[in-house]
Amino acid sequence: MKLFIRKEPRALALQSNGYDLVFENSPKPSPQQDSKVSQPTAVVANVPNGTLGERGFVEITNSLFEGLLGLINLNNHLFVGLITNVQKIGFPRWVLHKGGQIECKENIFQIINVDFYCLDSDAFDPMFTDLSEQGYERLLNEHPCGDLKKLFSDGSFYYSRDFDISNILQERGLFNRMDYTIDNQDKKFIWNTNFISEIVQLRNRITIEEKPLFDGGTFLTFVIRGFCKTTMTSNLDSPTSLTIISKISTENKENMFDLQGIDKHGNVANFIETEIIVTTEQYIFGYTQTRGNVPLSWEVTEGQLLHSKKIKLTQDPAFFQAAFDKHFDDLASKYGVVSILNLVKPKSESQEILSSAYQACAENKNIKITNVEYSSDLLTKSSHKLLYILKQDIYEFGAFVYDISKGIYVGKQTGCLRISAFDSIERPNLVEKCVSREVIELTTAELEGFEISTDFVNAHEKLWSDNNFWLDRIYNKNYKNLSKYKKVYWKLFSSSCKVNLYDPLHAYISRCMKKMKKDFTYEKDITIFAGTFNVNGKICAEDISDWLFPGNSCLNDTADVYAIGLEEVVELTPGHMLSTDPYAKQYWEKKILQSLNTRGSQKYIHVWGGQLGGVVLLLFIREVEYSKVKHLEGDVKKTGFGGMSANKGAVAVRFTYSTTKFCLLVSHLAAGLENVEQRHNDYKTIVKNIRFAKNLGIKDHDVIIWMGDFNYRILLSNEEVRKCIKNRDYAKLFEKDQLNQQMIAGESFPYYNEMEIDFPPTYKFDPGTKTYDTSEKMRIPAWTDRILSRGDALKQMSYGSAQNLIFSDHRPVFATFKSLVTVVDEKRKAEIASDIYEKLTEEMANLTEEERYILLNKSDINIEKEDVVQPILPELKKGKKLPPPSSDTRKWWIGNSKQVKVLLDVDATKYMINPRRQVNPFIRDDKEPFFVLRNSE
């Protein structure tokens, strides 16, 4: 990155990857700027590439610039923060080439120094030219951003341009895209969010042609705080790297490092997320733990003894239970099952009260809590005692493992520890180190070709020791100077220090594009196939065409989207870290994809797959439609044995098809005739805990399809059920179907739709036959396998079962849908935007700065473009208010506030509305008259 400064009129220009970003102080408020907004505004000026020198800009060459930190407003001045010195500190992922050369695929940099250049004054420029020790002290003490410079240069801030450093490996995935990073990053771990947010908005406005240059530059830098480091083992034949990433949360901005409890929003101080990543040539492993202050409402007062501290609960636990619940709901939405490890030692009566209140709140929330009163020495010398206590949690949570050579996910972490301690960094770190080593040993024992050497153990110990040193250093430095640092953090996080960016060029283009929206958007129907199958732990050698391409599906041949849910793909074995068998999932992926691609000329691609224990969700999309699919992400939730086991649960995926949001789920709910309430609880647990980026839930989508083995049964005797099946009297069976009764009562799956069932129950058969269960248990046949849907844009076309696939004790079920989606023609949109951009830049080439400002801020936009019909939009006269909204008696379009009257020349005593017409009045129906005689049939 290069920095250029123009003195008159004052402006700063950044140049990176061939892209110029020019900031000017706003001479006057923009027409689009809200007069109520108190933040100052900087203007992003449009300067043709390669013309900075011609326009009076001079390059600053006395410093290196590694990236943009952001913009800030202090003391009525605007500043641009720049990173001026870094060092590479970590590389979680890498590739080994022939000859032993290691190529780093992900790099982490530690910030060594930052500088802040003023946008609207040259008064501070001389401070950057005096390189003496006295000059540096003057810069720290006299520059308005001196304390921010000191903060960001203390060695505790890190960033990466190769991956989303705010999220753990399991959440961010193995492929980095800037759009995905921006949409999915965990902002509570980004320390320069206020500085950079307007730059992110700027990126969203620029044209498609500009984005690759912008993204390839160093304009977007997302900074975390904590500790990061990678260390390599010395074995050159089989290199292994260990990376630790500890991130300090900014969630409790007012009391960042204070000895205080939870606020009303569920935020706590000193919350830290720590991830250990192990990479070999074949595998990549990740494990996450969290720690933070005890999430209760408490504060610290000085005790009677010198330097003693006394904890005081500020409220009764009942008053902050809601905040407590919010804190753990947020944790569960990100990490899955959360288990508390409380390290607070009841040295005094006040700490005993704190621990008791913690226990009570956890029990009210139904969260497992383990109280451990070990000292640091005991944790070091007798770590086996702690591991024995945590054994169940460690096994149930599992670990994230990806097999690089095979390209498959071997394991997933579905829960984490939430460690709490009072006034201690060391003890939580010792716990995390012990658990980390135990998990690595247990996991690698189940992986071929992965051995833990003495060198590996030593590197692991050293890494956690360094982690403790740096976190303790940050904590103590801040705690000893709380009032001083609170002032600095106020500058970081206060909205009054934010700078608004006004980008007249791209704002003008955006206004033009809104007027021309109809020229690059259209509506169309896409077809969706949803299928669910409990395969009973078996591999299918049979042809599955009857399931994937049913004759009565109302599809022309194949669908645009295939969503396949499988249950019991593996038999789960207790006492294993990797409770997922990836090979069964891989087998079904290949089998289904092969079946789809041998059907016709159109090819399918497997775009997403997720697994939780024996539950698998696979998503396939036509290759020609894939370019319209964005924001693909998944989530899982365990429900077996109170949420601790993966034998039951749900896997979900969400994506956006152009502008329409889809959510697809497969779940396996509690079994048993009597377990209706448990199934209902499973449903509620899944709805509550399945979460995507920006905290989107299942309901926050336009289209929802939920399928799986729901395990609902029929409340009739075995004899009656089998008799009804023989007589095809499915209506009588459906009346006694538990799921049907639950939906009618508004309990489970409210507002979901299910098409009429006209196929026999799909469970339970003698495997390999078409005969219902003849075993000793003689289970009552039932429709355990179901497909439900929700969304106005969705229309179900068919619902059926493939009766000829008989290897399992279930039968596969399918449903087909049509969904109306609004499609953006991205190519056409880019062409229009590019054309407008070229015409504008051509028109502005010979204009003065003032003339450009007038042109880009004029309210009447008239873009003449061939083959584009300009929409005629009514303009409100200045000062004229919008008319009042319409009502049942008054319509604004009639004018003069006249009353609305509708007269029907029909004798209501003789005629009535025709009941045979379409219920929806907007569906045209020319076959039936509007009115019929009242006595007619």
Walk me through what this model shows.
The protein has 937 residues and is an alpha+beta fold. Among the domains are: 228-464, no CATH class; 521-712 and 783-824, Endonuclease/exonuclease/phosphatase (Deoxyribonuclease I, Chain A). It is built from 24 helices and 36 strands. Strands 6, 7, 10, 11, 12, 13, 14, 15, 18, 19, 20, 21 and 22 form a 13-stranded mixed β-sheet that branches. A 6-stranded mixed β-sheet has the order 5-1-2-3-4-23. A hairpin with a 2-residue loop joins strand 26 and strand 27 (615-622). 40% of the residues are buried.
**DSSP summary: helix tally:** 24
Content of β-strand: 25-35%
Q: What is the residue-averaged pLDDT?
A: 86
- Main sheet? 13 strands, mixed
Query: What structural category characterises the helix and strand content?
Result: alpha+beta
What's the overall geometry? globular
Ranges where pLDDT stays below 50 over 5 or more residues in a row are 29-37, 865-880
Number of strands: 36
Organism: Lachancea fermentati
Pfam families: Exo_endo_phos2, Syja_N
EC number: 3.1.3.36
GO biological process, one term: protein transport
Which helices and strands appear, and what pairs or packs with what?
Blueprint: E1 2-6, E2 11-16, E3 19-25, E4 41-45, E5 58-60, E6 67-74, E7 77-90, E8 94-96, E9 102-104, E10 108-118, H1 133-142, H2 146-152, E11 157-159, H3 169-172, H4 178-184, H5 193-205, H6 211-216, E12 224-232, E13 241-248, E14 272-279, E15 283-292, E16 298-302, E17 309-313, H7 317-335, E18 337-342, H8 349-365, E19 369-371, H9 376-381, H10 383-389, H11 391-397, E20 400-403, E21 408-411, E22 415-420, H12 426-444, H13 454-480, H14 482-493, E23 500-502, H15 504-515, E24 521-534, H16 545-548, E25 561-567, H17 582-597, E26 604-612, E27 615-622, E28 629-639, H18 640-643, E29 645-657, E30 660-668, H19 676-689, E31 703-709, H20 718-726, H21 730-735, H22 738-744, E32 785-790, E33 794-801, E34 813-824, H23 826-844, H24 849-856, E35 911-913, E36 931-933
Parallel strand pairs: 4-23, 15-22, 18-19, 18-22, 24-25, 30-31
Antiparallel strand pairs: 1-2, 1-5, 2-3, 3-4, 6-7, 7-10, 8-9, 10-11, 11-12, 12-13, 13-14, 14-15, 15-20, 16-17, 20-21, 24-34, 25-27, 26-27, 28-29, 29-30, 31-32, 33-34, 35-36
Helix pairs in contact: 1-2, 7-8, 12-13, 15-23
